[in-house]
Amino acid sequence: GKTGRLLAVTAIVAALAYTxxxxxxGVSMVHHWEQFHYFLGSKYFPEVGYDGIYTASLAAERELDxxxxxxxxxxxxxxxxxxxxxxxxxxxxxxxxxxSDERWAxxxxxxxxxxxxxxxxxxxxxxxxxxxNPTPTWTFTARLFSGWxxxxxxxxxxxxWLDPILLAGMFVMIFRTFGARIGCLAVIVFGLGYPxxxxxxxxxxxxxxxxxxxxxxVCLLKRGRFGIAGGLIGYxxxxxxxxxxxxxxxxxxxxxxxxxxxxxxxxxxxxTGFIVGVMLCLAAGSLxxxxxxxWSEFKWNLxxxxxxxxxxxxxxKN
Length: 318
Known about the structure:
Helix content: 55-70%
Number of strands: 2
């Protein structure tokens, strides 16, 4: 009826609104700030780790000699302090030393793309952000896509399409599982939500894989595919940590069923899938070029961020 048609039209408009009605970032679909961190950070994770992406880019810029004065200050990712570039000379040498000659040449080529495609004032702001922060599991997944191509318009555009493809698959699952009404409502919430608007991570690189995994997992829970659902939540947990909280709801139902002496084998399958997913992700994260130590480095990086004030931090403490 008319209500259904109005809901469908609103969902379509909401989906268009998410893309700023095709305006994206004003210049292109690609979010260069995000891709600088996530493309370069994942591709060269064996060398730059969690502390070296900015200093590596400064060392590369010195050798490329773009004909302009290098920015005066940058964030030192070892301490999260903004410092004079001159104080990082030794760290530049140390980080460059982690590269083979072939890998260093490739890094310079990829960095030069960002140097040429962006205003230098924009690049200056990028290098005062907070570096490359994903888990080793996410890095493993990302390197399947970023590990071999060279930075170019076509490369970054292709990477930027990964999230929309995953989200489209998630919404198809929602419509097929819960029906058109719930599907339209889900699209409206997603399309009009200010905190996750396109300006934030739209046009980035696998920044919403966790959301697609959780969304599909919810659909699979509804369909009784508990093991796969648990595995997907395990993946989401291992790439963004906080999605593990989505298990609280099923855990409450489990306690209720257990108290009522109802069948709880569904939760055993869910928990097994989650544990298997986590274990596989732990192993994958150890195959990112830095070995199992990547996990201790990730913890160090997380502790560093918790110990310093960040604009993005939310919660009662802040």
